[in-house]
Specification:
This protein is 46% helix and 11% strand. By secondary structure, it is mostly helical. The longest helix is centred in the first third of the chain and has 16 residues. The structure holds glutamic acid (GLU).
């Protein structure tokens, strides 16, 4: 066994990269960094009907995005399980030769019939002593020894399994191909893995895998099964029901630092009174022993609020750069040539404090780049149903002709009209905001009015008045 710890992440490339997978990968990665060990990436690509190269690339890209960097010296791989098929078969044959596995010719129907008659759950070991060799329709089964198997799990403590409840499980299918259980163990042995940190759903496989480690003459690794992630209804996150793809969060503008920090707080917490902490602190403090074993609620709202905090921690330039990517990308609703970087840069501080995800930047500033504000008709009708709307806006537009053009004077002019009509500023801003921005909510109003310019602001107010009086 190697002296430095070797962790691994062993995803099956069968779809988008799941947030639960990202958390498992992070646990392994941070432990490898913390303990100066190795993080092995092994792509378990043996299920040919479900694997696709695009999913493998997706995993590699998503890992890089959350900081699991293949160029870091702690990273090893990716290895591909399919390239080790002959080692998996050889190990199974070795178990057969040692009498620890045997061939069985029983069909599913035969097994079920006998199980039914005997009141058993599964296979009854019918072929254990029949001394069959390989042949058509023969599977190779592991001879489960008598006794108990105790899995010492770092998260869950000692978990005891009565071997009598575990049937003699299949190692090689009748077509000679190895099953997941043995492929996974043989690769872990070959790759000198010392710690298997993976999802809780694999716990039932673990006594079988531990038996295989022992039968193949090796000391089993340290096991740790981390709790499942559940949704609001406390149901296990599923790709059909829930938003689980890391790629999707990335596209929506969740920042990698925010999702990493958030994922690390599911079932574990850093010391101190805030969960929003630098990665180095997480790396220093994280211990598998402290991971909670109850299911962890993956709360999208909380992830977004983490993200908002991370957005606020960004420097002005970093925020402008990140927002520019969104504003000049496919999310832009205006013709590209209408985008003005200097206008956005001036607005940026007002926006940075108000968004939880980068995608929210678009509706906050679109009115500055669109030729016409994107009017929300229902909201417009409501805002202009107030008696004060038309007369006050008419006066505001008039005042705009002569005032000095800056946010402060604009605000003062609006306030003055409000005082004359006995309407509070907050209320008065409703129709004005919708005339200028098309929306009922958004960033503070007077700076963008200044940025939009005197003429354009007046033009928008006039257009709104025309729309309102019909
Ligand atoms: N390939 C397995 C999966 O994606 C992981 C097995 C393991 O981590 O041992 O569920």
């Amino acid at each position: 066994m190697s002296t430095t710890p070797r962790y691994r992440f062993a995803p099956s490339p069968t779809g988008y990269f799941h947030v639960g997978g990202a958390r498992t990968a992070l646990y392994n990665w941070l432990l490898a960094l913390k303990n100066n060990g190795t993080f092995v990436l092994r792509i378990e690509d043996t299920d040919e009907s479900r694997n696709e190269p695009q999913w493998t690339q997706g995993i590699i890209d998503a890992l890089a995005w959350i900081g699991i960097d293949s160029k870091d010296p702690h990273f090893e791989g990716p290895y591909f399980q399919s390239t080790y098929a002959s080692e998996h078969v050889a190990a199974a044959h070795k178990l057969f030769e040692a009498g620890k596995a045997y061939y069985c010719d029983q069909t599913t129907e035969q097994i079920q019939e006998r199980a039914k008659a005997a009141g058993l759950n599964g296979y009854d070991g019918f072929s254990r002593d029949r001394k069959l060799g390989p042949g058509p329709g023969h599977v190779l089964r592991f001879r489960v020894p008598e006794g108990k198997t105790i899995v010492n799990d770092t998260v869950r403590g000692a978990v005891e399994f009565e071997n009598s409840t575990i049937e003699d499980f299949v190692l090689l299918r009748s077509n000679g191909t190895p099953v997941f259980l043995i492929a996974n163990v043989v690769d872990d042995i070959t790759m000198n893995i010392t710690h298997v940190v993976r999802a809780e759903e694999h716990l039932p496989n673990t006594p079988k895998q531990q038996m295989l480690w022992e039968a193949l003459g090796h000391t089993p690794p340290v096991w740790a099964h981390v709790p499942v992630l559940v949704n609001e209804q406390r149901k296990k996150l599923s790709k059909r029901r829930d938003k689980v793809a890391v790629e999707q969060y990335r596209e929506e503008g969740i920042l990698p630092d925010a999702i990493v920090n958030y994922l690390m707080t599911l079932g574990w917490a850093p010391s101190g009174d805030t969960e929003i902490v630098p990665l180095q602190k997480i790396q220093d403090e994280f211990r598998l022993e402290d991971v909670n074993h109850s299911p962890a609620f993956f709360d999208i709202k909380k992830l977004q609020s983490f993200n908002g905090e991370y957005i606020r921690l960004m420097s002005h330039d970093a925020f402008v750069a990140a927002a520019t990517e969104v504003l000049t990308g496919s999310a832009a609703t205006w013709p590209a040539e209408r985008y003005k970087p200097e206008v956005f840069a001036a607005m940026a501080p007002l926006v940075q404090t108000r968004v939880a995800v980068m995608a929210e930047v678009v509706p906050m500033v679109d009115f500055l780049f669109l030729a016409e504000p994107p009017i929300d008709e229902a909201a417009f009708a409501k805002a202009f149903s107030a008696d004060f709307a038309v007369p006050t806006l008419t006066e505001i537009s008039k005042a705009f002709e002569t005032i000095e053009w800056n946010a402060e004077s604009i605000k003062l002019a609006v306030e003055t009209v409000g005082t004359q009509h006995d309407v509070k500023l907050g209320k008065l801003q409703g129709p004005l905001r919708i005339a200028i921005t098309g929306r009922t909510v958004g960033p503070p109003l007077f700076e963008p009015i200044e940025l939009l310019g005197r003429e354009e602001s007046q033009r928008r107010i006039r257009a709104a008045l025309v729309r309102a009086v019909g």
